[in-house]
Amino acid sequence: MIDFKNMNRRRFMGLAGMTAASSLMLPQFGRPAYGATPLAAVKEEDAVIGFGHVGPISDEGWTWSHHQGLEAVKAAFPKAKYLEVENIPFSADCTRIYRQMVSDGANMIISTSNYGDLIYEVSDRATDVAFMECDGHRKADNLSYYYIQHWFPTYVAGVAAGLLSKTGKLGYVASFPVPAVFCGTNAFLMGARTVNPEATLQTVVINSWFDPQGAKQAGTALIDNGCDFLFGIMDEAAYLQVAQERGVWAAMWNTDIRRYGPDAYVTSIVLDWNQYYVDQVRKRLAGEWTGGEGTLLPMGKGIDRDAWGAKVPAEVAAKADAVRDRILNEGFNPFVGEIKDIDGNVRVKAGETMTPEALYTWDWSIEGVSGLKV
């Protein structure tokens, strides 16, 4: 059975006590001394690099962004051989696919989503192959994980939402009840409440990362319930199209897809893996790559807000960007207590800063968020 709570492929994840422009290295939470010895160097012409994706590269979303990273690697190292598999399921087929990559001579395998034990069965046996798992939760001598600090640009988008919403009712189209979604909904509402303390966020979980029909129905239901700003974590533009048709605002995820709703589009939480992937492959070829790392790409270097939509008032953009500037340039971290959950229990005490581990594994909703349960 797949544990969706730990399948947080983004999944989405912050660094308390670090600025968004700080080191890319996630502090190791009591980790052993993994990766003490780098894996052996590989000549570019002998290298085989494998990429495995959860979705289609044509999704214009999550998988497309990782495919762009692969294209950047190909441009940097044209003599290497590349393996790329789309739509890898959460089943034994996943393990077979990664085993085949190893059989095909892969020196480095990059899983652009979290597959947990399905991939660890392979990495544990192929100790001379470098494995990287996006939004993973395990490290070994030949295994590292990486992700993005999505909560910071999401908080900025929340500030804009709080300023733009007339009803104070915000809506969120959720994929699964996973940490990325809990963190995203919480960060979004926290940003909105800095300008509208009465704002609320209603979520609809559709149990898919890519389901245009489900996302359309969810967006419609949220608007029918009074929400005048939609946000979400989908790999397609369905709820943006609904927002365009219904005359409400929307913020998106992954890429710039404003053409599907130019009047409704506020911004997107945009991803850029290109330089990170090039750097990791370069280290692998040079014999400098070590496992046992957990890396979070910071705002401005892997994730950020997109350019504001054409209809966003200049004063709204300026106020939201003032918060972004504080995060980037002053080390502002908004994830400080007191923070209560939906039952009114204090989860983060007054003055206490949420740790990187807490943000990365956030699995509870703050006051004001409804409809999201594990």
From TrEMBL:
<feature type="domain" description="ABC transporter substrate-binding protein PnrA-like">
    <location>
        <begin position="49"/>
        <end position="293"/>
    </location>
</feature>
<dbReference type="InterPro" id="IPR006311">
    <property type="entry name" value="TAT_signal"/>
</dbReference>
<dbReference type="GO" id="GO:0005886">
    <property type="term" value="C:plasma membrane"/>
</dbReference>
<dbReference type="InterPro" id="IPR003760">
    <property type="entry name" value="PnrA-like"/>
</dbReference>
<protein>
    <submittedName>
        <fullName>BMP family ABC transporter substrate-binding protein</fullName>
    </submittedName>
</protein>
<dbReference type="Pfam" id="PF02608">
    <property type="entry name" value="Bmp"/>
</dbReference>
<dbReference type="InterPro" id="IPR052910">
    <property type="entry name" value="ABC-Purine-Binding"/>
</dbReference>
<keyword id="KW-0732">Signal</keyword>
